[in-house]
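Friendly challenge for the regulars: who can give me the structure tokens for this chain first? No prize, just bragging rights.
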Amino acid sequence: MRSASVERRQSTKWWWVMPMYGFPVLMLLNMVMLAVLAVQLHRSNSLQSRFADSMDTPAAAAMYHTRGGGIIAALLPIKFAVDHVTPYKDQARRGTCWDFSTIGALEQSYRKHGVAKGWLDSNEYVSFSEQAYGIEVMELCTGPVWRNSTEGGEVPLLYYLHKGLKDSVFPTRVCPYTSSPGHDWDCPELDDAFVRKSNPLSFTVNDMGTFYDQASIKHKLVQSGLAMPVSTTLVSVQHMYPCVGKFLANDPRCDAATCQLCPPELPMATCCVPADSTRGQNMDGEFLAHSGMQVEGGHGMVHPFNWYVPTQDDGVVDIAACLSDDSVQYAALNRQPLHLTCVDDAYCVPGRVYFAKNRTSYGDRMHVMCFWEYDPTDKSSKHVCLPPMLQETIARTFEPDEVYENDSDLCGFYFLPYDTISQVSALFQGFFVNSFDVKWAPQSYLANREKFPHLNYSLVQASTFTQHSSSRFDGPFPFAHKYKPMNQLTQHRRRH
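First reply, four minutes later:
Bragging rights claimed.
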């Protein structure tokens, strides 16, 4: 048995050693931990890059999957996007989101398979017809429930009706999509027996998976490399003006005895006044999570925060900065509108030119946006501000003179954050994601037409398009170009 004195001596020696070596030891441990963390981050990014470059190879499959086909959660990339996604399309004012979602998944599956087999170039895709698909589903679903309408269908119908749909997906050139309600059956070309009989597109749906939580969705997305249709409850959001400041000072709706209480997002005030807009998405296409959510039924987008704000450089200030050649060039370089025209004469003066100046957050997703107002007749100007407004209301007050179209090959998609999904699902349920195991017949591809002379590939050929790649990105100004060097006189003036 060790004596207490020996224990005390050793303990005393240990605590004497710690002050001498403790700091270097702690520094060494910290350096080791940072090194391990750096290796893990590098490994994650490296795996992600390798996976994106060789997703369809056996090496990638072995890297990410267990023997049973499951995916190793620790090796999931921190960010991931599937390849071969086709450009977005606009369902307009019809309730055909399920139709577009299904066709989008089929287009990506067809493209992925065709590229892997060498039947399509990597920048090629074939667009399918949402109009025809909706009609084919209605043909299979006659009866009182569907009411001869494509309103409110479901993505899983592709699986449950696959025996009737396997030869009933048509190229988009078969007939145009009708954007206005009440024209669900408009596609006279489908009445032609030859069009149906000679359609090359043919597929089988071997399986359908349904996923409800983030982890399983991410696993399946990386595992399959396929686009997966999303189904969710859409919500409307009641936004509120807080009863503070002069804007609502005399509004009877701010009477504390009878007012509507503010939501938790606005703790600075007791009373609030509802705004006119109840959109559940902002003008960037992002779906919102909010305490005032309610179930709604449908989805539209021109963004005032993209308007160019002139900078006051080189002593050029106020309205002169807005009228300068530099502002014109930089606004064009960034593809941002500079000159604004008054639309709503309740807040601005028609015939005058407006320039965005600044904005301040106010209330519940609202902003006070200020402008330079310029009168070209007498060249006078003044500073004006709108009352607090939602983005959508500001966009209805002014319209830009310069309009730059988005890249239709790559832009236009909605953004649905996982945080929004969690809150919407907790309140209303209705969220799920489907995956489809689809096998495309070789006859479906234009490259194989000589093997199937009895089929008509003219519609497939007319519906084949190219999509430019987004893999090469030079920096934060994708539309920038090199300017000619300034002459010496200009350089001297800029320096002084």
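The CA atoms of residues 310 and 327 lie 6 Å apart. Residues 1-18, 47-64, 292-301, 490-496 have pLDDT under 50 and may be disordered. Your move, everyone else.
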